[in-house]
């Protein structure tokens, strides 16, 4: 059996070597998977670890992308200041939303996040003076950190890999810290946690803000990658898609959302060139996951692997 | 056993390589990437686009200017990120030489930068918003085979004011870019022709009911501008006639009474004026043949999307013929794409101005019933209309782009 550490080293080596193996197309595909993975991981903080299901998570991606595009196109700010400001503003917006959304949990929370997401989507569509409405904002350029031009597929891939790696490591630290244990506690036993003297609301609130922040990181990568942002990226469909990534991959695990993001992006962008009714295929894949691995691909496969290796031993 | 298998495999690979080499010797085929929408709200238009290009290539037996053609279709789902992903796939994986598509303006905007970077020419077969690629951020690689949203509406506004003597118009249009720009074009030419736009209404794109908008229309107006996309034209005209809101001339944008929705309309559409670069009722040999071919193949009368895509194909063929099929010479091919002149097409003659946009004939049409079927009968034809109409290009480009509030409506009445 492969030990986890060897497995991780192999995965990292494969990720680093990818541009030498595939052409531009596959490298770009991998960049998209990385962006989706950061987004899914950020939502996983809520869905998997806090037990709060949000249907408005695309809002943070969209908001950060619009902020970044707006700051650089309308105000003429440089890449660094636009990016930092976009992160700050989006996190603030998440902090404000959290005050409202976390008055409820369960279905109420889901409905509030849905409503906020729809409001922001509507704003992006309607406030044409700022967002350019249905035409979207174009003309965003990619940054050049340390003078490295990111316009090539490979350069951007490494940039996305570095950012995604740092973001994933940060989220791993969070969920493995004492705070992560608290968070899981509020998910499983909120009343007991409260009786133990923990502020359940505050724990959830911090998780919500963190999810917003990492969603914004994904948003920055997204707008740099596409050099364009359109209201569609904030829509309910996009939010639902992120949720599907998390649920399909396995909420409450670190590898799950990454696998889920890869499955969705590959089905949408790659398989769809071979299968005309790819939406249907996507539906069947999710159906199969829910039926056979209700807790997600990663936990399901891990279980299957253990059973197999247990039998052979 | 095993060596036999390996041997067979090696032989197979060698045969394949030989075949590939043979193909390369004959010149590789022209690979056309085709961006369409097969899923989502825009799929109906996407299907008509596909029919247009399939018919075009089938008629030519997949040969253009002596070169074999390969069509690679990609579904953008009508969303910008997917449009970008699919364009990248066409360029980086399928190595296409030219792209036809996409359907929606926001999709075109999403891939604009990438097209410039990848240096693969793109021919857009459907209406382009004014505010886009060619005008403000000139992109040599983007060629518009048909006009802008405002282009036919300039003509219609001029026609309404000068030929019909309409004085006071109320505009009702979908509240998105395509609706804004069509209305702006109409208002611009109509008011310069002596008319007045006295009221502007903007129902949201997905409004459930037009009743409250029809009810607001000023009773003392003698004209109504209806700027709708998709099936909204059908829904609006039906409700307008049910409310019996009074007699006035109705002016529609190309898609309001497009052949694609006209077949589902009734008496409410009779007498509606509109303007477009096409009508299925156009009485030319090229168009008659085209309409018959589409009827034979797909059992429907062609409209906006079908003809736009078909003509984009004709345009490509003309440019390809100019370079004698040698699309490998990228610079010459691009130059030919800008300089091609289509003399005969179902729409009539087309060429491209220095901004990459089409100069074509705009037809003023009126819905009539012929042999029990509604048709867009041609009332007037304005040849060689540019995106600027009669305005000076320099001034036009210096002014703000058309929007909900530009040009300002000075004659609105409370």
Please provide a brief summary of the model:
Chain A is mostly helical. Chain A has helices spanning 4-21, 24-50, 58-73, 79-101, 107-126, 128-131, 153-176, 178-188, 190-195, 200-226, 236-249, 255-269, 278-292, 297-312, and strands at residues 137-138, 228-229. The model of chain B is unreliable at 20-25 (pLDDT under 50).
What does this structure look like?
The complex is a heterodimer of chains A (313) and B (414). With 313 residues, chain A is an all-alpha fold. Chain A has a domain at 24-235. Helices cover 75% and strands 1% of the residues of chain A. A two-stranded antiparallel sheet of chain A has the order 1-2. Chain A is globular. The model of chain B is unreliable at 20-25 (pLDDT under 50). Chain B contains 14 helices and 15 strands. The radius of gyration of chain B is 23 Å and the shape is globular. With 414 residues, chain B is α/β, with parallel strands linked by helices. In chain B, the strands form 2 sheets. In chain B, strands 7, 8, 9, 10, 11, 12, 13, 14 and 15 form a 9-stranded mixed β-sheet that branches. In chain B, strands 2-3-1-4-5-6 form a 6-stranded mixed β-sheet. Chain B has 2 domains: 28-148 and 284-359, 3-Layer(aba) Sandwich (Rossmann fold), CATH 3.40.50; 151-282 and 361-398, Response regulator (Rossmann fold, 3-Layer(aba) Sandwich), CATH 3.40.50.2300. Chain B starts with a helix and ends in a 16-residue tail after the last helix. Classes of the chains: A mainly alpha (313), B alpha/beta (414).
């Amino acid at each position: 059996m492969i030990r986890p550490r060897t497995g991780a080293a192999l995965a990292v080596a494969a990720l680093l070597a990818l541009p030498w193996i595939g052409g531009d197309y596959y490298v770009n595909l991998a960049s998209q998977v990385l962006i989706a993975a950061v987004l899914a991981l950020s939502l996983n903080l809520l869905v998997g670890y806090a037990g709060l299901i949000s249907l408005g998570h695309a809002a943070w991606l969209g908001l950060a992308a619009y902020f970044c595009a707006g700051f650089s196109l309308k105000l003429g700010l440089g890449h660094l200041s636009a990016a930092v400001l976009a992160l700050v503003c989006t996190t603030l917006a998440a902090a404000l939303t959290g005050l409202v959304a976390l008055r409820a949990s369960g279905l109420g929370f889901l409905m509030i996040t849905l409503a906020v997401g729809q409001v922001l989507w509507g704003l992006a569509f309607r406030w044409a003076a700022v967002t350019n409405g249905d035409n979207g904002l174009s003309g965003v350029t990619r940054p050049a950190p340390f003078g490295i031009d990111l316009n090539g597929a490979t350069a951007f891939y490494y940039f996305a890999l570095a950012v995604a790696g740092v973001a994933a490591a940060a989220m791993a630290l969070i969920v493995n810290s004492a705070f992560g244990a608290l968070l899981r506690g509020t998910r499983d036993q909120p009343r007991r946690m409260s009786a133990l003297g923990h502020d359940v609301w505050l724990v959830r609130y911090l998780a919500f803000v963190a999810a917003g922040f990492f969603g914004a990181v994904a948003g920055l990568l997204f707008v740099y990658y596409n050099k364009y942002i359109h209201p569609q990226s904030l829509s309910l469909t996009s939010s639902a898609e992120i949720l599907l990534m998390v649920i399909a991959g396995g909420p409450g695990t670190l590898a799950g959302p990454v696998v889920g993001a890869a499955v969705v992006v590959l089905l949408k962008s790659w398989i769809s060139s071979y299968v005309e009714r790819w939406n249907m295929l996507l539906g069947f894949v999710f159906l199969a996951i829910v039926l056979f691995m209700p807790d997600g691909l990663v936990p399901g496969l891990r279980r299957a692997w253990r059973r197999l290796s247990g039998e052979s031993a | 056993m095993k060596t036999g298998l390996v041997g067979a495999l090696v032989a197979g690979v060698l045969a394949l390589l030989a075949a590939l080499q043979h193909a390369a010797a004959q010149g590789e085929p022209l690979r056309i990437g085709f961006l369409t929408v097969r899923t989502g709200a825009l799929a109906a238009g996407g299907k008509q686009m596909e029919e247009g290009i399939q018919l075009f290539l089938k008629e030519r037996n997949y040969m253009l200017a002596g070169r074999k053609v390969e069509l690679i279709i990609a579904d953008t789902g009508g969303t910008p990120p997917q449009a970008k992903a699919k364009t990248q796939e066409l360029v980086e994986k399928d190595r296409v030489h030219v792209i036809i598509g996409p359907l929606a303006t926001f999709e075109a905007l999403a891939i604009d930068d990438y097209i410039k970077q990848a240096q693969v020419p793109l021919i857009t077969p459907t209406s382009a918003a004014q505010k886009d690629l060619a005008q403000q951020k000139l992109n040599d690689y983007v060629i518009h085979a048909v006009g802008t949203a405002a282009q036919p509406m300039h003509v219609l506004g001029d026609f309404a004011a000068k030929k019909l003597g309409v004085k006071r118009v109320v505009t009702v249009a979908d509240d998105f870019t395509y609706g804004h720009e069509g209305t702006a074009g109409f208002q611009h030419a109509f008011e310069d022709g002596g008319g007045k736009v006295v009221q502007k209404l903007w129902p949201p794109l997905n409004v459930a009911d037009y009743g409250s908008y029809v009810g607001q229309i000023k009773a003392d107006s003698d004209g109504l501008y209806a700027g709708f996309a998709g099936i909204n034209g059908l829904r609006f005209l039906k409700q307008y006639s049910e409310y019996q809101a009074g007699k006035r001339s109705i002016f529609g944008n190309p898609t309001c009474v497009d052949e694609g929705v006209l077949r589902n309309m009734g008496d409410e559409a009779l007498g509606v004026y509109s303007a477009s670069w096409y009508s299925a009722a156009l009485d030319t040999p090229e168009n008659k043949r085209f309409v018959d071919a589409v009827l034979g193949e797909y059992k429907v009368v062609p409209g906006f999307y079908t003809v736009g895509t078909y003509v984009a194909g004709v345009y490509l063929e003309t440019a390809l013929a100019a370079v004698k099929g040698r699309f490998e010479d990228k610079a010459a091919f691009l130059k030919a794409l800008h300089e091609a002149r289509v003399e005969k097409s179902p729409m009539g003659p087309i060429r491209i101005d220095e901004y990459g946009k089409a100069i074509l004939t705009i037809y003023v049409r009126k819905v009539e019933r012929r042999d029990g079927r509604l048709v867009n009968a041609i009332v007037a034809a304005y040849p060689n209309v540019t995106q600027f109409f009669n305005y000076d290009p320099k001034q036009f480009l210096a002014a703000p782009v058309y929007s909900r509030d530009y040009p300002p409506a000075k004659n609105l009445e409370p």
